[in-house]
Predict the 3D structure of the following.
Amino acid sequence: MSTLVIDELITELEQSIIIRKKINVGSIRTHFYLHNAPSGVFNFEIHKDNNLVKSYEFTSISLKNSFLGTANFFHIYTSFAIGDKLVLDRGNYKFKITSTGYTFSNTSFLGWCKDFNGVFGGFSADVEFTDYPYAYRIIEIRPREQ
């Protein structure tokens, strides 16, 4: 048996990362836990040096719609597809989860799952992050070799 470790979104959750090489991002995949259907709008934000680079909006309804089930609580891997070209240059970044119109409750909340085994964090020379990271994965676009 395994244990799902999460932090509940109270006001904001953030993950610091260091990008060690330029990355052409195709999508960013995260692992969330949804308990019931909290109201409000959530944002997955990418910051570099305290400046907002990109923000993706979602709701508990959009997460539930991508989950093929009827459970009131579940954990789900969800991807934020990059509609336009996003390049992350070398440097210090933060991934943040923020919200508008959301109030934490023990009976209805969003959580970001932790990634203790590194499967979705990518222990590599390209990305470095702090202890007890949140689960995420950066999917890189690479040009097709001729």
